[in-house]
Specification:
This protein is α+β, with helices and mostly antiparallel strands and 308 residues long. The protein is 33% helix and 13% strand. Strand 8 and strand 9 form a beta hairpin. Belongs to the QueG family.
């Protein structure tokens, strides 16, 4: 006989699939014991660079019950963003996740729908939706939920689909069936470590955030340090190198999410087009895009750094 938590789990996973999520795994809410010393060590080594917000809410990052009263379950979800078509070769590069609409809004809507579905079908369930904008260690929870393992480049990897996907969660006060973590399949491969242009992967499974091209081109608001000049390989917003070289990403399949469909301008712009972009064009092209985070001035700064 199927018990309630089993029935609810099946309902949730079926609805997640219907909403277009790539995968859905569930883990028991609790304190992340293994991650606590790792996060502390990473912060003490100042690998967060100028990302001061990473030091905030240390306890909440490790304990979801501080984010949602009486939290019982973490429903981890992934959404594929691997594009069918890539940018013009020889142009300034933008990370593939930013080709379409800003994923925060796309996923938040889906999460709201899923939570509404849970409350409709199951009854009084309290929960909160998180998309990369709150103190939640999403990769750790996704790994606990069996959606993949954390690779040497610190991304979540899956044997079936690689790593070109977003991760999000619903934290709910509902008892569910829990999935088991999967095993690590990086083996002896060091492709990501060898390929990182700025040597940001300082050891297997350890990324110094303050050395990452994504950090320099998105998070850092000051001038980019001169010691990394010539190492960016034309990346002006984010970087996909450690994912592009990962053997598991040969299994990436193009996504089917209309809202993440690439913006034609991003794909077709040449270096000259980018160099001539005005504030007005930037606002028009990136109106609903994650690239907005770097602002027009930031993009120009990045381009100038690449040109110098």
């Amino acid at each position: 006989m199927i018990n309630n938590s089993e029935k609810y789990t099946q309902l949730i996973k079926t609805e997640a699939k219907r909403l277009g999520f790539l995968s859905c795994g569930i883990s028991r809410a609790g304190f992340l014991e293994e991650e606590a010393p790792r996060l502390e060590k990473w912060l003490n080594a100042q690998m967060n660079g100028k990302m001061g917000y990473m030091e905030n809410h240390f306890d909440k990052r490790l304990n979801p019950t501080l984010l949602v009263d009486d939290a019982k379950s973490i429903i981890s979800l992934t959404l594929n963003y691997y594009p069918e078509v890539k940018q013009n070769v020889g142009s300034y590069k933008i990370s593939k996740y930013a080709y379409g609409q800003d994923y925060h809004y796309v996923i938040k809507e889906k999460l709201k729908e899923l939570l509404f579905f849970i409350q409709n079908e199951i009854g009084e369930v309290s929960g909160r939706a998180f998309v990369d904008s709150a103190p939640v260690l999403d990769k750790a929870w996704a790994a606990k939920s069996g959606l993949g393992w954390i690779g040497k480049n610190s991304n979540l990897l899956s044997k079936q689909v690689g790593s070109f996907f977003f991760i999000a969660e619903l934290i709910v006060d509902l008892e569910l069936e829990y999935d088991n973590a999967t095993t690590d399949h990086c083996g002896k491969c060091t492709a990501c470590i060898d390929a990182c242009p700025t040597e940001a992967i300082v050891a297997p499974y350890v990324v110094d955030g303050s050395k990452c091209i994504s950090y320099f081109t998105i998070e850092l608001k000051e001038n980019i340090p001169s010691e990394v000049k010539g190492k960016f390989d034309d990346w002006m917003f984010g970087c996909d190198v450690c994912q592009d070289v990962c053997p598991w990403n040969r299994f990436s399949k193009p996504h089917q999410e209309p809202l993440l469909k690439p913006n034609e301008s991003i794909l077709s712009f040449s270096k000259k087009d980018w160099e001539e972009i005005t504030d007005e064009t930037f606002r028009k092209v990136f109106k609903d895009s994650a690239v907005k985070r770097t602002k027009y001035e930031g993009l120009i700064r990045n381009m100038n750094f690449l040109k110098e």
